[in-house]
Amino acid sequence: MKNNIVKTRLSSNQPVVGVLSNSADPTIAELCGFSGLDFYMIDGEHSPVTTAQVQDIVRACEVSGITPLARVRSNDPKLILQFLDAGVMGIMLPGVRTAAEAEALVQAINYPPKGKRGFAPVRSADYLLGTMNQSEYIEFANEQILVLPQIEDQEAIDNLDELMAVDGIDGFVIGPRDLAMSMGFYDGASHDEVKRTIAGAVEKINRAGMIVGTTAVTGDQARALFDRGVRFCLVSLAGLLHSAAADFTKNR
């Protein structure tokens, strides 16, 4: 277990930017690290990435100095365990709607006494060959892991006060496209009602002193979000490539 640089920056109210990637190629993660991004979010929901591939992706992140995070596909403690044991330093769970679901996520991510995560001599614990003993590692790991439910549903918006009251949650990441669809807008998140809903959630989460994150396509969009109090900003790998390609080719 390494120090979670992203969590440290967020605790100091510093913004962080990163990529949500559906690639199973560790080289992509390595390139993102050397390019200066803060975090690399492995997409375990909308991608073919398997838990067997996560470990090498995490190694590539560590080589290039980028913090490895993951979006897991379900609130399955054993699945979450595999990502964490490989060295992932934060979990984003899509589709969280209720406090009970958020509490289950906290329990799956943390070792006792904060949670129910199982212990083994795995990579994240240096295979018990490092300088920490078991109790030191457990305490350190519980401090370092970032816990981020994803708000993608009107029900989650309605339950936001209860979600924010769950002990062990660091913050929330708003998914504009899925949230818009849950509100009946199937063509995207550009509608005023969706924008107002997201703005209200950002303001409420900020007032609670918690991390709030969402997506941006361009650097200008990210800066505008930071001005509104967003501190965790991510872009899809495809979106980042498209934006960079558009900028590179605009004067040809």
UniProtKB/TrEMBL annotation:
Segments forming domain HpcH/HpaI aldolase/citrate lyase: 19-232
Domain of life of the source: Bacteria
Alphabetical list of SUPFAM superfamilies matching this protein: Phosphoenolpyruvate/pyruvate domain
Pfam families on file: HpcH_HpaI (PF03328)
Keywords (A to Z) from UniProt: Lyase, Metal-binding
Molecular function terms from GO: aldehyde-lyase activity; metal ion binding
Record-level GO cellular component terms: cytoplasm
Entry's family note: Belongs to the HpcH/HpaI aldolase family.
Name of this chain's protein: Host specificity protein
UniProt source species: Spirosoma rhododendri
